Amino acid sequence: MTTGSAPFSRHEIYKHTRLRLSFSLSRAWVPLLLLLFSLLTACKDNSAGPAIPNVFVNEEINVSSQLYPELRRDGGYAYIGGGYKGILIVRQNAGQYTAFERACPYDPAATCSKVEMDESNLFLVDRCCGSQFNLQGSVMGGPAVHPLKQYATSLSGSILYISN
User: Domain Rieske: where (predicted)?
Assistant: First the structure.
């Protein structure tokens, strides 16, 4: 055996080191890419609005009926069936009514999620999550970021039509 000879040439060592370094760098990117991917997929885009199921709504009520005495005054309200979890009707003024889905936009699937008029009759509240909404359905407080889902209303005489 000669004393000056190495088992590997300088070129082979360089090639082997470069290959190992290249492989380690590519392995270092894998966890980073996985983390980035999971962060991007975890942040879903809620700009489209709440995930309240769309159900067919075609209701009509007589606002002069004895069943709905609260609808005879501004700020009065009534609950009716229909929609996903029911419909809340609010009289804005003599000729204008708004109808809202009672499922809270924060977590509409929660069994306790149901928007109702507060005892003060000044705002709407979901006692399940604590979200509060004004009488036009806009968010006033709580975790909700989207307004209440509103249905179209049309008044003909004393008949109020509610639809989507």
Answer: 87-162
The domain that contains 89 carries what CATH number? 2.102.10.10
Tokens of 152: 């179209």
Q: Which residues span the domain enclosing 64?
A: 58-163
Answer whether residue 99 is part of any domain. yes
Q: Are residues 135 and 93 in the same domain?
A: yes
For the chain, what is the domain count?
2
- Residue 51 located in a structural domain: no
Q: Distance between CA 117 and CA 53 in Å, rounded?
A: 22
Taking alpha carbons only, the member of 57, 69, 65, 129 closest to residue 99 is 57
Residues 17 and 72 in one domain: no
Q: At 159, is the secondary structure helix, strand, or coil?
A: strand
Q: Over its length of 164 residues, how does the chain's per-residue pLDDT go in tens digits?
A: 555 555 666 666 666 666 565 555 555 555 555 555 554 444 444 455 558 999 999 999 999 999 999 999 999 999 999 999 999 999 999 899 999 999 999 999 999 999 999 999 999 999 999 999 999 999 999 999 999 999 999 999 999 999 99
Chain centroid to CA 138: 14
Task: Give the C-alpha separation, 82 to 85, whole Å.
Answer: 7
